[in-house]
Design brief:
With about 350 residues, this protein is an alpha+beta fold.
Length: about 350
């Protein structure tokens, strides 16, 4: 079903809302170059990534009947310090390259913000991620009413000769309820927790001791056409990494598959076992590296990741994102506290 939610006849503009994926919107997303000031890429598995969203909706701006900008939003429930919030993740936003710098992105961003904020039940939150360094996008969203709630950083795990471990297993559906409860307990003081919808037992790898899970991580394989890495180190890496023995067999910028990791768990004293899990994921799926996104303010992930030997690529490639958010039904005192809370980044959330 398609609904017209905004119209500007003087500019021949319409904003349309769909509950199923329109082909022309997917085509625009497939063609978009993501990342302006850091990692630059095209997604080669956009349709698959959109299938991971639990409750998506699709908004597009048309000019003279042509789709020139698109926004994908995903409505779900999150928990903030154990309290359930109605939430909309601002998942993807793109403007066709032939229509940039014409104010069309601003039109769609404003219509989107108004529509989804009105839709929220209180307490509720709109949230999204903006690449650090993209000051124009950050200014636009802050001007619309979103707040800058902190910075998310990425870490890169790599091994030149990753080894399989027969101790690492797939979680499986039967063990999901127990793992879900343990993740919720571990991250009870964090914000944006959505383990109910994000925990995938078929992509969650665990390591057990005496039948008891002591460490785990969820691994999603992404498929990109990598166009650029940030900084002079990134330029060198783009030229050198494909020719490094072993790593170079899998590091193909034009056809790059790698792992994105989330929902990390480790009992105290078992943090270093995450390395064994990630190394097994690389070896099993022939991947050159894994990207772990985490809020440096979070005590749980900081405890775990500080025990992981990430490898050489972590010193070459780096990335960061601003978390932006707008709350509904929250007073100023609560807002101040919420904006300081560490967040959990769902491995199913597009960035």
């Amino acid at each position: 079903m398609t609904t017209i939610i905004h119209s500007d006849p003087s500019r021949d503009l319409q904003v349309l809302l769909d509950d199923t994926l329109p082909p022309d919107l997917l085509e625009l997303l497939d063609q978009t170059i993501w990342g302006q000031h850091g990692v630059s890429f095209r997604s080669l598995d956009m349709a698959k990534m959109l299938q991971d969203l639990s409750n998506p909706s699709f908004m597009r701006l048309t000019k003279s009947g042509r789709t020139v900008a698109a926004a994908v939003r995903n409505r779900k429930q999150v928990e903030i310090a154990g309290t359930p919030y109605d939430a909309v993740h601002l998942a993807l936003f793109a403007v066709h390259r032939d229509f940039t710098r014409q104010g069309l992105g601003s039109v769609l961003a404003q219509v989107s913000r108004t529509h989804y904020f009105d839709l929220l039940q209180a307490p509720g939150v709109l949230y999204g991620y903006i690449e650090s360094g993209n000051e124009a996008s950050l200014r636009l969203n802050l001007g619309l009413g979103y707040q800058d709630m902190g910075e998310i950083r990425s870490r890169i795990f790599s091994r030149s000769r990753p080894r399989l471990s027969d101790r690492v297993e797939v979680l499986g559906q039967n063990a999901r309820p127990d793992m879900l409860a343990r993740l919720k307990a571990a991250y009870h003081s964090h914000a944006l927790c959505s383990f109910d919808t994000s925990l995938d037992p078929d992509r969650y790898l665990v390591l057990r001791r005496q039948g008891h899970i002591v460490a785990g991580a969820q691994v999603h394989v992404l498929h990109w056409q990598l166009l650029a890495l940030p900084g002079w180190q990134g330029k060198i890496a783009m030229q050198v990494l494909p020719h490094i023995p072993l790593l170079g067999r899998e590091f193909k910028p034009a056809d790059l598959r790698f792992a994105r990791v989330g929902n990390i768990f480790a009992e105290p004293g078992s943090e270093a076992l995450i390395s064994e899990i990630l190394e097994t994921a690389l070896a099993a799926q022939h991947l050159p590296f894994a990207a772990v996104l985490a809020d440096p303010r979070g005590a749980v992930e900081s405890r775990i990741l500080s025990a992981v030997d990430f490898g050489a690529l972590d010193h070459v490639v780096s990335g960061a994102f601003h978390l932006i958010g707008e709350f509904k039904g929250v007073d100023q005192h609560q807002l101040k506290q919420l904006s300081k809370a560490p967040v959990v980044i769902s491995p199913k959330d597009p960035l």
